[in-house]
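A common beginner's mistake is to predict each chain separately and then try to dock the pieces by hand. The better habit, illustrated here, is to supply every component at once so that their relative placement is modeled jointly.
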Amino acid sequence: MGSFDLLMQGFENAFTPTNLLYACIGVLLGTAVGVLPGIGPAMTLALLLPITYSVEPASALIMFAGIYYGGMYGGSTTSILLNTPGESSSVVTAIEGNKMAKAGRAAQALATAAIGSFVAGTIGTLLLVLFAPKLATEVVKLGAPSYFALLLLALFAVTAVLGTSRLRGFTALFIGLAIGLVGTSTGQPRLTFGSPLLADGIDIVVVAVAIFAIGEALWVASHLRRRPLDIIPVGQPWMSRDDWGRSWKPWLRGTAFGFPFGALPAGGAELPTFLSYITERKLAKNPEEFGHGAIEGVAGPEAANNASAAGTLVPLLAMGLPTTATAAVILLAFQSYGIETGPGLFDSQPLLVWTLLASLFIGNTLLLVLNLPLAPVWAKLLQIPRPYLYAGILFFASLGAYSVNFQWFDLLILLVIGLLGLAMRRFGLPVLPLIIGVILGPRLEAQLTEALAISSGKVSTLWSEPVAVIVYVIIAGALLFIMGNGVRTLLRNNNQKKKVLA
Amino acid sequence: MSVVVAYSADVYGKAALAYGATEASRRDEKLIVVNDTKGDAYVDKRLAADAEIEALRAELSRLDVETEIHQDVVRDVAEAVLQVSAESSASLIVVGVRPRSPVGKLLLGSVAQRIILDATCPVLAVKPDGSGV
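With all components supplied together, the output reads:
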């Protein structure tokens, strides 16, 4: 059966009233959490993981995908109206978007963001449908050594490429890997401190909820009172013919940046949105308008972040590799259904995957329909006092963690790792490497064990496959580049010091 | 001695300020406008925007009495108004009162009510013109 038939079957399944309802809930919830700064799709999905115990896999994943896409939409509203990005992916949008709003063009900024997100999301999802199954059929042929190398690359890329400090990134990664080691999965008790409660390992759901929800809630609570920001009132978003003419090219270029970056293991939306912004500034007919509210500077990055959200799903569905925090939690949802993620997913769960893909198209359309008329309503969410919000989050976090195994011990772990999350935010450690480390660490080990078992202990098997060798060369190249950069800055600093001393 | 106005950026606050300004001129006392916020939400509609404060300053400077505008992030707005009143030994506090639904009364406290009950000086409760509350 061709991909098209499968996709049509997916649509059929996604259009059932129940699934449509979950898609609606997903996009509404996603937009709401996208609008609120500090509460992101990753935290929301982590809090909602317990519903995987009672809801059908397809329905839950449709809702989760809706939240993921919705979060990207919602973030732009806050960026434009409040000059505070609702999500890290809409940081760049705030630069021009808020200037536009201050110049009385908030309606146009919101419109180009919403329509651009729709265009990019749809194109991105089409590309996802085209590429992910093909990639999966290739990856499924790879042996354990290649897969081990790919996992290693994902861990390395997420840690080294994103963020400003490699040291902080790797610290977070190794904390994550250490948490992933706890338990007796190998037959040997590791890091269990002799406690039978730790013998089964630390549930990843508890870790995700603790890091995303508890850590963030404590962080917000620790500096709760701030002067509220001036919000710019807005009516119904709309665009003139001129705005359309200036927007459509940036949308397409933004999509072209966003999708590949999302699909790379070093994905995330920060880099492509920034690149899109720079490109639009270079290509603009009247560059002097940039910095004073150029519509191109909103259209491009907003398209880029939605396209990258679609791109992120390529490695997630085709290889089981999460590259963003939200993708990591979606992967957890698959796992909690006992669904084997990885290259085999398209073969073992065709209906589920294609329903999910079809629902992305539906969700994207729903988001456009909802967001254009509802923008003023979303802006009202920002008036909710934070104590109410975070009390709710703490409640659902505790409930979620307790419902994993119904034992008090999980609540203790929740609190301890939540405090760790607070400390990481305080000291600027990124949380993404940690959560990716917890999820991929055990799989990395499983692949290594498998590879070594097949080769009866010969380590040389790790570089016996061409794909593995290529991946190691890429890692080594990136490592050399980073080290070269580090040495150069070190030398420069030394020279400057010498000059100062002389 | 002074007249303290509990100001919010809406019709209720404006009504209170109009009365307060007139009253301060009549008594020839200092006019203090308090527009504080709890600062626990990302957006507080009752906190006047910077542009509005500027306009307010310009308008108040035409009065023949000394004026002062407070905009602080405080734990409790009613308490902050009362504290300013006590410090400036206010002769009058002016508050705007707004209609509240039964559910609203159940869930939320009222700044105006607490000021009226706890103040040690006379309090003038003002309603916007023609709102019929």
